Amino acid sequence: MSNDMKAVGLYKHLPISEEESLIDVTVPTPKASGHDILVRVKAVSVNPVDTKVRANGEEEDEPKILGYDAAGIVEEVGDDVSLFQVGDEVYYAGSIARPGSNSECHLVDERIVAQKPSTLTYQEAAALPLTTLTSWEALFERLNIPFNKTANQGKSILIIGAAGGVGSIATQLAHLAGLTVIGTASREETITWTKNRGADYTINHHHSFGPQLEGLEMKEVDYIFCLNSTAHHWDEMVNVIKPQGKICSIVETDENLNLSALQHKSATFVWEFMFTRSLFQTEDMIEQHTILSHVAKLIDEGDIKTTLTQTLTGLNARNLRQAHATLESGKMIGKLVVEQEE
What we know:
Quinone Oxidoreductase, Chain A, domain 1, Rossmann fold, 7-stranded mixed sheet, 6-stranded parallel sheet, 10 helices, globular
C-alpha cells in the first residue's frame, strides 16, 4: 500500500462557489492501531454537517478532510480490534473529531462501524449510516419510543422535514414501529416520496400545523421530530404536542427557545446529536455498532430501503463541490452519494 493517498480537503472555510472551498490533496495514508480499522473507501455520502463544517471555521494549517458517511472494505485492523477482519465490507458514520472519509482510505473506531447490508451496493449503503443513527437514537433513545407495534397503537409522530436525508429514514423507522406518521412536505415530489417511505399523512410546513392536523381529525401528536429550523417551528410544535408529549430536534439555533411554553403540558424537549458518542468516547459507544448491525438486518429482510437518490462518480473536489451545492440548495430529496472510480 502506498504511503500517500488522495483526499479532498480544505485550508480555507469558504462558500461552495469558491474553487478553493474544497480541493484535491495528497496526505499520508494512516495506520490502524488500538480499536481502529483502516477502511478502503468505496463510496461516501454528503450531509448538512459536511456543509456546515466546510463553511465555518478558522484557516487550517493542514488540509481538513470532511466526510462522515462511508462504505468500504477493511484493509487493516488495530491490535485491539475484535469485531472485524481484513476484507470485511462495512458502513459507518465516523467521528466529527477526526479526519473524514473523503479520502482513499479512512481510519475509524470499530465500535461505531457495522457490516454493510449484504443486499446493498456500497453506494446504497453509504447513503444510510449518519441519517439512520440520528433517526434511531432520536426515536428510540431520546424520545423513548418503544420499537413495538402493539405498544405504539394509537400513537402519532410529526416529522418536520420528512423528505430529506434524516426524514427519509425516520419515516420508515417510525412506520415500522407502528406509529401513525405525519410528515411535512410542501412539493408534489416530496409529498409522493414521503408517502412512499411510509408516512400515513403529509402536511405543509409552510402553513400552521394545528388546522392541518384538525383536518386529519387529530388535534395533537404524541411525538415531534424536528429536522428543520427549530426556532421557526417552535411555537407550532408547542401548540400541537400532546400534554406529556416529547419533542426532539437535531437543528441548532442561535435564537433563544421559550422552554417555559412547554411547562403546562409537562412536555419534554431533547436534542439529538449523532456524534455525541464518538466525540465524548462514551461508555456505550458500541451502541452505534449495534444499531447499524440491527438496521442492516432490517434492510436485508426488506423492511427498510436505502434513501439514495443521486450518485456522482469520482471522489474528487469537483464532485464534492457539486454535492455540497446541491445540498445547500435546500431541494434535496433523500441522499446524494459520491463513489470512487473503479
